[in-house]
Amino acid sequence: MIKSVLITGANAGIGKETARQLALKGVKKIYLGCRNEEKANAAKADLENATGKSVFEVLIIDVTNLDSVRAAIEALPEPVEALVMNAGGMGGPNFNDITKDGVTQIFAVNVLGHVVLAEGLIAAKKLTNVAIFAGSEAARGVENMGMKRPELKTSSLDEFATIADGSFHGNISDPAIAYGPIKYMGALWMSSLARKHNNIRIVTMSPGATSGTEGMKGVPFLKRIIFTFMFKILALSGNSHGVKTGAKRYVDGLLDESFKSGVFYASKSGTAGPLADQSKLFADLGNERIQDNASDAIHRFIK
Predict the structure, then answer these.
(1) Could you state, in order of their start, the residue ranges of all structural domains in the chain?
(2) CA angle 140-142-145, nearest 5°?
């Protein structure tokens, strides 16, 4: 049983619910990684009221800002046994803008900040047991939601770098187009990282199609309406679920050691239901050369 955890994007949605479930499981220290202090403190108060436990601490971190990430690593007062890299989504209205690190906002919030966080914690010996990265079924394509499987010509380091800097798709107005390849690249990085750190269990876990989250922020209004309608249809067919179920996937990934290091788990079919190793559905996810190329491409942008 883990005793301490850091969760990014913990002030709302799946991150906040994960914190609640872990507190009720008996975790003794839960760091709420949030970029907005006011919202973080409100979430802390809500969680204390909901659980009757005083185990929550706020850690200010903005994963789109690498200086903030490094400051959070330094500010963390003690090692944690577990890390949940939950922050992400569609990157807001300016998702395709380039950060000072040379990547798009949507890439920064989903991948780059978490790479610096996880690797920085490991280097500082402040992460000791298990790490969970928020994956998505979009990384292997979801036909019934109009998300194509990422199609790379060479899967080279240079080609992966174009996903990070946005030139892979160019000047697009819909973040959902970029989202799948970005989550694909994040899952590949996690598998590469797992092979380098045998002492830590490193897992990519999709929360599945989860209603009631803020993940659709930044999606064009009309498409957001379409997605909302699709979620209702998916729920009727068993292909979506609520925040509690999405968070439980993270909790299970943390606590159940049968989830193997280096593996990307997501729905076996569709966007909800039983979990499966995604490399069985999309072989490139299990290719070590491709994993390392994705990881090396990300590190081009870390100064």
Answers:
(1) 4-299
(2) 155
What stretch of H or E contains 266?
strand 264-267
Domain 4-299: assigned CATH number? 3.40.50.720
For 287, list phi and psi in degrees, rounded to 5. -85, 115
Q: Whole-angstrom Cα distance, residue 126 to residue 6? A: 11
Sign of the CA dihedral with 16 first, then 22, 24, and 28 last: negative
The radius of gyration of the chain's CA atoms, rounded to the nearest angstrom, is 18
H/E stretch holding 213: none
What's the pLDDT tens digit per position in 196-231? 999 999 999 999 876 655 555 555 555 454 455 454
Report the C-alpha gap between 133 and 12 in whole angstroms: 17
Round to whole Å and give the CA distance between 206 and 183.
Answer: 10
